[in-house]
Every structure is written in structure tokens, then in C-alpha cells.
Fold each of these.
Amino acid sequence: MTLHLVDDHDAATRRVTALVSTAIRETPSLVLGLPTGRTPLALYAALGAAALDWSGVRTFNLDEFVTLAPDHPGSFRAFMDEHLFRHVNLPPASIGFLRGDAADTAAECARYDAAIAAAGGVDLLLVGLGGNGHIGFNEPGESLRAETHVVPLHESTRRANAERFGGDWQAVPASALTMGMRQVLSARRVVMMATGASKADAVAAMLDGPLTTRCPASWLQAHPDVTFVLDRAATSGRRVR
Ligand code: F6R
């Protein structure tokens, strides 16, 4: 486990931008797993502006809202198009994404797992941290699932995503498709970025608590090659430093 403790969100963004840029330069055929959310916004702006060749890269996003078509403005696919994909020379055929509007969601999940396997697995998976400890959309609860699956979203998660739905959390779909814990833990390298005081409790549980389904991100402690990039505010809840 590598822990980069930096001053603030900008410093965390610079650190992760450097990590991803190096990975793409060293491995032009990189298979890259990606999150959406507020945390990577500046990261994607920096990657979009960097002189990087994405022509050989393949990407797989972590999750998508059930029911939403890729061109729905609230979809994660639309978010990625807006903030990263349209700014880099990533071939459209190299973008792996879950279809929220799939008629058969179980078949869609199986298709996604097979597509990731066919790509040789994920080399570098970037993840964010839910304020409730979720990773991807693996929400805290009694149990976790290994494979890509449909998950009901907690109200707190829907509220956190309300911005792209006119601020109305009830307009945020009630469930999502997400990579499961096997996809997260079998990525060859994981980089977790979390910043801000709203993540402090989740960061403390993730790093210092037991491995528990109550904090899905705590399972990253078991990953053999995980890098945490955290700012001071996000680590303010830790008792052990
Ligand atoms: C989104 C995802 C989520 C977010 C998490 C943090 O694709 O997988 O796990 O990474 O909810 O979101 P922000 O960055 O908005 O705080």
C-alpha cells in the first residue's frame, strides 16, 4: 500500500495526473478503469490538456445509472464524453461502458465482465470514495457482490448525484449497474483519490478499520498494489497517522 498525503485537492489532482500520464506513456495499450464524480473533474481537464496519445488505450468505466441511455445528460457516459473522451484521441471503439438502458441488465453485466476479460483485465483502475464508503457503486450493507451487477442506490448516494438532475435527488435513478468487488480487486493497480472533509469518516474506515461490507472501500487494504492519494482534509478523521 502506498499513501500519498498531499495538502489539498489541487495537489492530489497533480499527483494522480502524473501517475496516469506516466502509465499511458509507459504502456500505450493501457487498460484503464475510470470513475465519474466531482473528484476527477480537474484530473480529466488536466489529462485532456496533456500531450498524451490515447490511440492505443482502452477504458472501462466503473458504473452507470439504470434506465439512462448514453446520450441522457445525467448519464455517466455523457459525463465522460463531456469531461474527457471528447478531448482526447481515444477511439470510440476502445471505450467500454455499461448500458444503463439495456433491456436485460443481467445480460449487460455479463457482457461487461466478458469484455473486460477479453481486454486482458484492467491495468490501472482509478476510483473515488463515496462519503458512505462505497467504491464504484458497491454500497455498504450486509453483503457485497463479486461480479458486475445491479445495485439499489442509497439515498445519500442519490443526493450526492443530484446536481446533474436539476438538483432533485428523486430524479436520480434508484439503481445502478456497477463493477463488483472482483473487478475492483483484480485490477493490476488501483489508485484511490479522495479529498475534502466530507470524506474524512470514510477515509478513516477505509484505511484503519477492519475489512467490512459496511465500508466496501476497506477491501482495498487487501489489494497488493494500491495507491491512496488523499488530502489533509480527507485524512482529518484518522486517529492513527
Ligand atoms: C462514480 C463512482 C463513485 C464515486 C464516488 C465519489 O463513477 O464510482 O464511487 O467515485 O461516489 O464521488 P465524488 O467524486 O463526486 O465525491
Note: The CA atoms of residues 94 and 236 lie 39 Å apart.
Amino acid sequence: MKKLFLTLGPGLLVFVLLFLASCGGSSTSSGGSTPNSTGSNLNVAFLPKAINNPYFDTAAGGAKDAAKALNGSFKQVGPSTASASDQVTWINNLTTQHVSAIVVSANDPNALAPALKQAMAQGIKVVSYDSDVTPDARQLFINQANSEDIGRIEVQLLGKQLNYTGQIAILSAASTATNQNTWISFMKDELSKPQYKNMQLVKTVYGNDDDQTSFNDTLALMQAYPNLKGIISPTTVGIAAAARAIESVNKGGKVALTGLGTPNQMRKYVEDGTVQQFALWNPADLGYLAYYAAAALVKGKITGQPGQSFDAGKLGRKTIGANGVVLLGPPTVFDKANIGQFNF
Ligand code: RAM
């Protein structure tokens, strides 16, 4: 540090330290930035909602496989908490580095848009995955599954379990998260159907994809609503924290829980009966597809127009749909019978 101080001088050193602190996250990388077989540099940066989330780590694993297959480079950077303003800092940083593509999962669709538009103006390709930004701030959105199906399926799973009766609550991620908010709007629409007339949504709370906040929110919900019969948590961080909270007050089997989780984080709770069923897609395939889409844009094989198609390696050819959306596929429902077959 002394040497760094002498080299940079006090002012610049403070600036560098402040900058690093403001980013509040870190990065991992793999592959070289050597020119690929087409001669262009394929240097793709993934920016998830937050790092240290097993869901995004699994997606990064898939992206690394794609980078290897395409002779490109991969790195993941991001904030340590799910913060939109920290993501803006990272976008500006990646724009200065002039990476060839930014692949981002948004904590807020609007807050990220100006920085992403600046990146695009400098020739950087922008792909959103998992959680979209405003459509004019990216070329493509890689959607994990049909948003309507994801929202409705969670209500259907809980309804069946509760015999369509009782108070329920939702434990979401950030209140501005594009993906969760879209799914919740379809949950509400599903709940408005006649078969749910005896099921009442009493509250939606936001755990911000933070384990401790989500745990505390779940305890607070059960305290505020002693007759609460079920919780839907459409976030892998939230559902795992909620399961732990339910068990911590011995309410396993009394307060039903479903939503979106990773099999590895939820296995224990499915095996001990706290959770009967939950859903998800394969995050590794999502990261893999997002990398292939970014590569096709960088190589000029597509521009992001609906109807264009591109090679997505082991996932086959994918076609761009309306609004620049590329769909991965249907979600899987996990339960005691099948959870043993999955390891992510
Ligand atoms: C969390 C994040 C992510 C979401 C999954 C289901 O990991 O909120 O955006 O897609 O849950």
C-alpha cells in the first residue's frame, strides 16, 4: 500500500479506493481476449443483479462453456447487493473498457437504460438476460421461459396445495426488478379467476434478493398474519430464506411455500416436507444462450430484429421473437420424486 501511495500520490489513491468501494462487488474472468476464428474480438462481460448468488453463478458456468466453444472471453462483474445504482457504475466501467458485449440482468429497467444506451452508442452490444431493461436500451432480451407461464404456475402450485383456500403472501426480490414484477402481475391475474375466490393475497414484501432481509420479512409476515396459509417467493434467494424462516418457527407443513428455487438450495426443504413443489429453468442454459446471442450480435450475424435466427450451440437454432425476445424454454417443476436428478 505504501508503494501504491507513493506511486499514485494521495489524491489519486483516494479516488481509486473510492471508485473500488463504490462498485461494491467484484469480478471473475476466464478465457483470453484473443481474436476468435472470425478475427473479431469476442470479449463478453456478464453483469448479474448481484454476485454471490448461486443462480447467477450457475448461469456464469453456462456462459463460460459457451465462451470456450466460441473461442471468446468471459468475465462476470457486479455489485455485492442487488442495487441498480451500483449496476450503473459497472456499466460505465465496462463501457470505458470497451468490451464487445454487456449481458445484464436488471435490478431496475429504467435506471440502467441511459448508461446502456451510452454503451450501445459506442458500438457495444447489449443483451439483457433473466430480468429485462427497457427495450430501447438493449438489442436482445433472453427470457428464461414464458413470463405468463412462470407467474401462473406458481399460483396454481400453491392453490392445489391449499385446496384453494386461505390467506397468502408474496416474498419478492427488489421492488423494481423487471422479472419479478412481470411474474407478480400474472400471479394477480391468475388469482382473480373464480377458483381462487377463497384465496386472499394479503401482502407483497420485498427481500431485495438478500438472504437476511428475506428471512426477516418471512418471520414478520407470519407474525402479522397468524392465519397465513401460504407464501409464493419468485426468487431463488427469497424462497430458500423463507423455507429456513418457516422451519425456524416450526411452521413447516402449516405455512405452505412455493416459488422459484434452485434444486441444490431447496433439496433439504423438499426432502423434509417444508416445500412440496417449486419451479425453475436451468440457469446454466440461460447463461449459455445469452453468450451465444451476444456473440452472434458481435460477429454481425444478427442485429436483433424479430425473425432473425442464430446458432446457439447445443441448444440448436434460436429465433428472435417480438420485441427482440429470445425464449429459452418451459420451466421444470421440482418435487420429492424428481429433485434427486438435478444438481445446480
Ligand atoms: C433470483 C434472482 C433472479 C431470478 C431468480 C428466480 O436469483 O432474482 O433474477 O430470475 O431468483
Note: The domain at 147-280 is CATH 3.40.50.2300 (Rossmann fold).
